[in-house]
Amino acid sequence: MLKKVARWVAPGACAAVAVWVLATRWGSVLSAHPAYLVLLLAVGAEGLLGLIRPVRFRWLVLPLVLVVPLAWLRPFPADGTPLAAGVQVVDRWDSIELRPERGTPTEGLVFFQGARVDARAYLPLLSRVAERGALVVVVKAPLDFAVLAPTSGLLDEHPWITRWTSAGHSLGGVAASSFAADDDRVRGLLLWASYPSQDLSGRDLDVTSISGDRVGFSSPQVVLDKRPLLPSDTRYEVVPGAVHAFFGDYGPQPGDGEPSTGRANAQDRIVEVSAEALGL
Predict the structure, then answer these.
(1) How many whole angstroms from its chain centre is CA 112?
(2) Which among 143, 225, 248, 264 is least buried, having the fewest CB atoms inside 10 angstroms?
(3) Which residues pair with 112 in a beta bridge?
(4) Sign (positive or negative) of CA dihedral 277, 267, 250, 214
(5) In contact, 125 and 246? CB cutoff 8 Å
(6) Exposed, middle or buried, 177 (CB in 10 Å: 0-12/13-18/19+)?
(7) What is the pLDDT of residues 244-272, one digit of tens each?
């Protein structure tokens, strides 16, 4: 009986999850690092094959194990907010570059996305930073998990940048902290509703931490508890009324706090403090 049920349920689940994610998040999946798309297509194809003709159950074990994680990894989509004028966008398979149209920037910002968030959701805010004269490189992480992003050679393509700042939102801030610790060319660290996972208190880094007092994740208290991991001269900025999802443009996020200010007002302050952190 179990084998008969598995004959249809197992491949059906594999195919259904792949179709559901692609149908509801096609734009986000297509624009992201290709790892997620490859997994979805592989699991979906295995499921369809199992529906078309009988296959041994053991061939479906791995795709079946991946069904729940793949469904959970369905990204929060960018809401299509327009980017700032005066910025050129270069979209690659592993990153998105924002370049100011005027002048040659010497300040560089490497940005790591929050977990399960479409990297494009950060472009509206970051384009306003780039517009002021910085090169911004938004890393596309495998499966939209910044801690999985390869960083070797990330800065080598931009030798004209004389000062780099590593930045990230939420889990992306953890990745940004690790990158700042590993690459001596990084002189600054910018945390959006985040904190480091390692001790950077003895490092020569210019650190700015921006959080919101209504954030449901990486709450102000958690940020406060992590202060010993950062240099003593770290700048801390709390945006009144801001929630976790205000640090990007991807809509509300389950488990987040309730805002007491408008998204636009909060983001104006986030952009202003971020630009100040880069000396812009």
Answers:
(1) 5
(2) 264
(3) 139, 168
(4) positive
(5) no
(6) buried
(7) 999 999 999 999 999 999 999 999 999 99
